[in-house]
Amino acid sequence: MLTGRVDFYFCPLPVAGPFIAEGKLLALAVSGSKRAAALPNVPTTLESGVPNSDFDFWVGAFVPKQTPRDIVAKIHRETAATIESAAVKEKLAKLGVEPMIMSPEEFDARIAREVDIAVTLAKAANITAQ
User: What is the residue-wise DSSP string for 76-117?
Assistant: First the structure.
């Protein structure tokens, strides 16, 4: 993008944000389910007329499946408290990152939904695992 060899690119806001702020890149749309707080005047792909195009970029913490639920709950509480701290919120906001804290059950459901979507897309595109 920056060298002019590619005309169009999707990338996470924390990567593109500084270049957008410097005027080196133009944000056409965000793919999240809502507008990005860091780019409030940039429409979503849904608002731009592209149906079923919302995709929230996210990062999550994973543990082995057999981890006791009380340990999972403790990790969740500690992680959520850290993310909710003023210092971390401020740093994330500067990067254009909006925390999406979920319960472990909500996170499990999100993963299951996204796996189903990926499998459906792979089948539609006739992609097989190698």
Answer: HHHHHHHHHSHHHHHHHHHHT-------HHHHHHHHHHHHHH
SS3 of 44, please?
Answer: strand
Question: 9 vs 24, 35, 39, 83, CA distance in Å?
Answer: 13, 18, 17, 29
Quote the CA–CA distance of 13 and 9 in Å, as a whole number.
12
Contact 39, 27 (CB under 8 A): yes
Q: Count of H helices and E strands in the chain?
A: 4, 0
Judged on CB neighbours under 10 Å (0-12, 13-18, 19+), 76 is: middle
Q: What is the pLDDT of residues 22-78, one digit of tens each?
A: 999 999 999 888 999 889 999 999 999 998 888 888 889 999 999 999 999 999 999
Contact 28, 88 (CB under 8 A): no
pTM above 0.85, yes or no: no
Residue 128: per-residue pLDDT: 85
